[in-house]
Amino acid sequence: MTARQSPALPRPAAIAALFAGRGAYRTALWTSNLVLLGLWGPGEFALYATATGVSGWLIALTSSGIEKAALALVPRRGGGGLIPLFALLAAAPFALALLGWLALAAADPSGAPARYAAAAALACGLGCCAVMAGLGRVAGRHRVDVLAYLTLACAQAGGVLLVAWTGLGAHALLAVHVGVLVVLDGTLAARLAGGRLGKLIKGLLRGRAPAVPGGSPGPALRAAALLSAGEVTSVAASSVMFGYFAHLGDAHATSVFYVWSVALSVVTMGVGYLLRIVQPRVAVWIEGAGSGSARGAARRILVPAVAGGAALTAALAAAAAAGQRGPVATACALLAEAALVAAVLPAFLLVENTDDGGRRRAAVAACLQLAVTAAAGWFLVPAAESFGALLAYCAGEVVKGGIMLLSLRGAR
After folding, report:
1. What is the pLDDT of residues 179-222, one digit of tens each?
2. Looking at CB atoms within 10 Å, which of 38, 93, 367, 381 has the fewest?
3. What are phi and psi of 372, to 5 degrees?
4. Can you tell me the distance from the alpha carbon of 311 to that of 398, in angstroms, rounded to the nearest whole number?
5. Do residues 279 and 321 make contact, with C-beta atoms less than 8 angstroms apart?
6. Distance (Å, rounded) from C-alpha 43 to C-alpha 41?
7. What's the rounded Cα separation, in Å, for the pair 207 and 412?
């Protein structure tokens, strides 16, 4: 593939199938949790939910940056040789987490450390699966993504049936899901990288640096590290917000915020996934048109997005000051945050796919967004609960876009 041959976008039917696969998995995940609560009762379910919740950030850490770096670099001229490296970067955390879990399970299979280690292995396995699916898409194998997530959806349903039939506990169910991911990720890695991945691993075990396009894995590793910042800080912001609700000690308020968070995640995940589908084509366009064109397009997106977002956030802040915090006000805040995410993320996609400088700009903006969201939430959550939390998200998103816009002034 060359810079003059942009990868074709998937057909609408293929995009619909991709979303159907991800949607089936998410639906199965949320539904299975509700059914497990009924089957186990609150005590055993709390063991399962706490372990998976604590480990959830590992999914973002082990997938987001690696997948986005692969989608940015593999489609470019000579980038196909990076596929084994990205496959290894995704598989290594899963392998290490798997070994750690097996060691703890052998020492004390019924203990909390083994259960948490199983949840960590599950999270790393899901991160690995996301990267493998992304590598499949960039190679034009969209069915790989669809079939992988349909398999995970079936695994969720099968896990519930096993619990109902055999009475499996939390740790045993986690072990089942980890086993499914071992088989699934191993199959995906073998199909995508084949013998090249095995040669890369053997070379590393013998102390040889991996042979990749350009002679060094450094640029790919830097890209993966920088591109992980956006999603990791987003997960951290959500965790901080739930921490504020836990500090309130109001179970009803926390439950209501969880419902609003799920609604928001449908939008943010959908927009993010759509952008990853088109990212290979964007990366190759930037390679041909130049980074200046991408930065110019990002500025044109961010100017109205930041201005409109600031106005919406100011209006929502005025409503909060007036004591508004009901469902209508919260729904308005949700729509404002969803609109901001949908407007700002495409601009960041353009900047992140230019060079390391653009990726550093995006990472700095994401970190400042987290700081602003956490600071605003500290005051707003006690005052306005879910409305306040969503308002804090809006403030962080405006700051994120504004920092990027300022950093692009004068950039060519």
Report:
1. 999 999 989 988 876 555 555 555 544 445 555 555 567 888 89
2. 38
3. -70, -45
4. 10
5. no
6. 6
7. 41
